[in-house]
Amino acid sequence: VCCSHLILCFTVWKHSLREQWNAKSVYVVGNATASLVNKIGLDTEGANSGNAEKLAEYICSRESPALPLLFPCGTVKGEILPKMLKDRGIPMESITVYQKIPHPGIQVNLNSYYSKQGVPASITFFSPSGLTYSLKHIQELSGDNIDRIKFAAIGPSTARALTAQGLRVSCVAESPAPLALAKGLQLALQAPSC
Fold first, then answer.
1. What is the arithmetic mean of pLDDT over 6-14?
2. 128-142 vs 106-117: helix axis angle to the nearest 10?
3. What is the dihedral of CA 92, 93, 98, 100, to 10 degrees?
4. What is the pLDDT of residues 111-127, one digit of tens each?
5. Dihedrals φ, ψ of 46, to 5°?
6. Which 3-state string (H, E, C) describes 136-168?
7. How many angstroms separate the CA atoms of 90 and 93, rounded?
8. Quick one: CA dihedral 61, 66, 68, 72, positive or negative?
9. Count of C-beta atoms within a 10 Å radius of residue 19
């Protein structure tokens, strides 16, 4: 793509398409996603919902759309939002726009941490895929001490993924925000171990 094509695309977006998209509702989960979407000039709704279930409830409380909702998602996506909307008769069309892959240095980084710091008091997961990509390494490095670790989750989907792997969840953030996570971790770390 040459520079002139990029300029033309940006001009069309800025002077025409952005307004057309802003005439529609743009739903997001979390402030980080809202911030990214806002940077391209779109207004968002639902950022404070915190998770897919609450966002689905928010969408269902709104006027039913005439056209299907567009759901840009990754190759690995939760089914909670699509199922809840379908059950309420709200049509949605999913389109895969990205693929989650593990960080190439995850094993080296975990090895480095464990060799310098030892077994951590807590580990927080921000997504089910983060758990998938790192759990084997964490189990190997922690050995019999894995039961000492307090596992935290950023939200209910990640907590379910931890439980499905046989791990005890010590903390689920009340909302996907740093302060809510810090508060939950502080309480979990102060609680006596079982």
1. 72
2. 50
3. 50
4. 999 999 999 999 999 88
5. 85, 5
6. HHHHHHHHHHHHHCEEEECCHHHHHHHHHCCCC
7. 10
8. negative
9. 11
